[in-house]
# Entry
Amino acid sequence: MKTKSRTAFAVLLTLVAAALWAGCGSDGKSSGASSSTGNSTDRAFVAGMVPHHKSAVQMTVIAKGEATGPFVKTLAKNIARSQNAEVAQMQAVDSKLAGAGIKKGKLGTSMAGMHMDAQMLEGAKPFDAKFIAMMLPHHQAAIPMARVELAKGKNAELKKLAKNIIATQTREIKQMRDHAQG
# Structure
């Protein structure tokens, strides 16, 4: 009888855990912050940051073939890896927000440094200096966008991502400035 009781108890625990994991409600709402919870600022953040990140990744593709020094080669590799992952994450969250009926708003930040033509890097001499000269303002433009998300956004996942963008790009800006100074 003990084995049957243990088995029944294990099944009951599994069912309770599954119900809790699924959010337990039939209304589709969970007690915690879901990834579909957000506002128009969250959608505006994604709408601005995704093309911004894609532009940086385009610059890194060119750097892969033309960078000469280890600093820019490593920096470009790191930017491509992190920003491609962030684009995928933002697009997944945005899809859920759109599915929840949340409309895209406006960030209200300057777009300076946002729309750089990565093709300007092709054949640039010295390449590494030109890459840094273009990537610095590009990174600097992302930080105010992320700050707006932190201040006005509601989606917990995007707010965490915005904090990471600020930290990462601030660190990379410092590294680029230090490298450029010698």
Q: What stands out?
A: Residues 70-99 form the longest helix (30 residues).
